[in-house]
Amino acid sequence: MKLRCASISLFLPLITLTIVQAGDTKPFQGRTHIIPGLIEAEHWDEGAAGVAYSDVDPENKGEAYREATEVDIEKRSDASNGHGIGWTKAGEWLIYTVEVKESGTYCIEMPVASKKKGGEFMIEFNGKDVTGEISVPDTGAWTKLEMLTHKDVKLEAGTYQMKVTMLREGPSTSIADIDYFKFVKQ
Ligand SMILES: [Ca+2]
Ligand SMILES: [Ca+2]
Ligand SMILES: [Ca+2]
Fold first, then answer.
1. Whether pLDDT at 170 is above 80
2. Is pLDDT of 7 > 60?
3. What would the pLDDT profile of 37-63 be if each residue is shown by its tens digit?
4. Strands 93-100 and 33-35, sheet pairing
């Protein structure tokens, strides 16, 4: 008995991918972030929602620090540049145009605040995961920044779109308040 393959044609559904093109965002105020160096969290690229950033709720719950945006900017006196990002939720992301001046292995220093344990986020360079999941500890209060460090990040010299993605919320119901990302050569 000959079994015949079912003659049903299977068509893969056409999937439309939204690909972030390098030209779609511009460095904040025209200044590409330099690595090694400090990148203010509140200085993500200029560009539309879904291109330069994605935020789950349309209003900026914090401070009108820069042009109208959905990203939630927090004014805080203890932060570098007087501001950081807050009200972070799973699925949100931010793009930063960066130039790595020196190839090498880096440690990232990130002041974060979280009342109860925070969530997880990750950092990609041109779509490549360079950190894995970074977990945010309980710093005791939303008003208390603590330095979170992540070591052994290998980067090659060049210009990149750095993407920070909020993966999941912790018991704090958020990921973290973040002041900046400072890349230091190990
Ligand atoms: Ca928002
Ligand atoms: Ca948000
Ligand atoms: Ca800051």
1. yes
2. no
3. 999 999 999 999 999 999 999 999 988
4. parallel
Residue where the block lists tokens 């200085």: 43
Question: Is residue 125, in this structure, part of any structural domain at all?
Answer: yes
User: Closest by alpha carbon to 166, among 130, 127, 135?
Assistant: 135
Q: How far is the CA of 78 from the centre of ligand 3 (A)?
A: 9
Radius of gyration, CA atoms only, the chain: 19
d(CA 121, CA 112): 12
Ligand nearest to the CA of 178: 3
107: helix, strand or coil: strand
> How far, in Å, is the centroid of ligand 1 from the Cα of 55?
5
- Residue 52 forms part of a structural domain: yes
Give the distance (Å) from ligand 1 centre to CA of residue 11.
Answer: 39
CA separation for the pair 14, 25 (Å, rounded): 27
116 in Cβ contact with 102 (< 8 Å): no
Q: Residue 75 domain-assigned?
A: yes
Between the CA of 147 and the centroid of ligand 3 the distance, in Å, is 13
For 113, the domain range is 41-185
Domain count, the chain: 1
Kindly report the CATH number assigned to the domain that includes residue 141.
Answer: 2.60.120.260
Q: Per the domain annotation, does 34 fall within a domain?
A: no
Residues 6+ apart with CB under 8 A from 143: 76, 78, 113
Q: What is the reported pTM?
A: 0.87
